[in-house]
Structures are given as structure tokens and as C-alpha cells.
Amino acid sequence: MRLGGQRPSRNVEDRRGQGGGFGFPGGRSGMRLPMGRRGGGIGIGGILILMAVMWLLGLNPLDLLTGGGQFTLPGQQTVERPGTAGEPDARSDFVARVLGTTERAWEKVFAEQGQQYVPPTLALFSDSTQSACGLGAAAMGPFYCPGDQKIYIDLSFFRDLETRLGAPGDFAEAYVIAHEVGHHVQNLLGTLQQTTAERARLPEAEANELSVRVELQADCYAGIWAHAIKQEGTILEEGDIEEGLNAASAIGDDRLQKQSQGRVVPESFTHGTSEQRVRWFRRGMESGELDDCDTLRADPL
Q: What is the chain's mean pLDDT, rounded?
């Protein structure tokens, strides 16, 4: 991607190097890592167990509860991370410029609908951070919280995207950001509120299917962003689109389940298969129209 001439977004909040904190789960939407490292806040029982373990190890649990210091177990080395709060680096600059392209793309789409686009804030964090939806942890992968209209990303996810999932490239990383922005668009349009309330009333299997539809729509919205920057003709380079399609395929439920547990359980899917994710991303990219991303009523998906 050629982002050097692109205006970086001012809506990036750098929390790297700051302490996290405990919280309780809320209505998060987003990507998640394989190997069973799935999202959700830590409940009361988990907090008590963790505190007990810390006492046995000679650590002070109050450091975590007050957000003080960095939690490292005996023998575990603290890794110095590039970039701290308030200090831009190449990675945060990349994120800011990609977010800037999403703002420009969605401002145009919303203007065509006679509406005003209100951009989200993107919070960079390391290890864990507090959100209006509860505790955000690196193991959850990037997520969007409608409660504060913020996207949360630990940049280590991009390393996992390349090394664990086999989806390298700057456009693959940009697709992840665009997917989370897609959830923000759903929030602005009222889709998240509607589907969250509906999922709470449904049996688990049907709630999972609705979750798949929500995630595939976010993929399609990421495709609308790709369509917009492709039309500009100055950002994309050869191979970029293939990187995005490869990333969409790499994070399909079927592929992740096969990697992590050796078998596929379709009724437990929450994000869609690799084929579905690629197809809906491609549909948004080829069309550029909101109406073509109506995954909630599509049959079949």
C-alpha cells in the first residue's frame, strides 16, 4: 500500500505501555485469535483465582487491580515494545493512515445517504486495557466496543496474523482495521443494537448464526472501503487485493477450528467460513454499495 501521501487520522489513542485493569464482558464485536484464545472479560471467579496465584508467587494483586506496574511471572522477561503512549512510530503511523482512508471512504458513503459519518476512535494497547465493554486483552484479538465507539487493537495481532495464520502484508493488516470499522458502521446504522437484542432471545445455535451474519456484513463493509480506495488509483499496489482475500480466508471459523482442535463444528461458528468471508469481502469490494451487504436477510449466506 502507498500510504505516504495519505492524511493520518487524528482519532488514534495510544495506550501502549499503560496498565490494564479488570472489567466485565459487554457487547464486543471483532476478530479473535486461533488456538482457543477467545474473547470475554474475566469474571469474579477468575479474578479470585488469579489473585490467589499471585499471592503464592509473591506478587501483589493490588498492582493489577490498580493498573500499576507490569505483570510478569518469575522467570518471564519483560519485552520492550516499540512505541509508548504519545510517541508515534512506524506501526502507529501506519494504523493512523489506514484509519484516515476509512474515514474518507465512509464520509462519502454516508453523504450519499444524506447522513453524516461520525468516525470511531482506535485505541492501541499492549497486553490489556479497559473499555466500556469490559476488559480488552491481546488474546481476544482486535474488537469494537459500541459502548464507547472505539476499536481496540494490540499490534501483536498483526504478527500473529502473519506467523500463525499465514496472512502477511500491509493490506492484510489494513483489512483487519477496515473490518472493525465495519462494526462501527453497523453501530451507527443501528444494526448492532438490533442484532444484540435479538441474539439474547435466541437459542445458542441460532444466536451463533446471527453472529455470523453480523461478522460477514462487517467483512462486506471492509470490501466497500477497499472499493473506495481502489477507485482512487493511488493507494493500492500489485498484490494488495490478494493479501486481503488471503487474510479473510485465514480467519474463517472452519480453518481456525481445524488448526486449533483438528475438527470443524459448524453449529459453533460465530464469524463465518473462509469461503463466506472471502465472498462477502469480495462482494463489497466489487459493488461499493451498502444495499449489497445485507447479510441479515441473505439466503443462503
A: 83
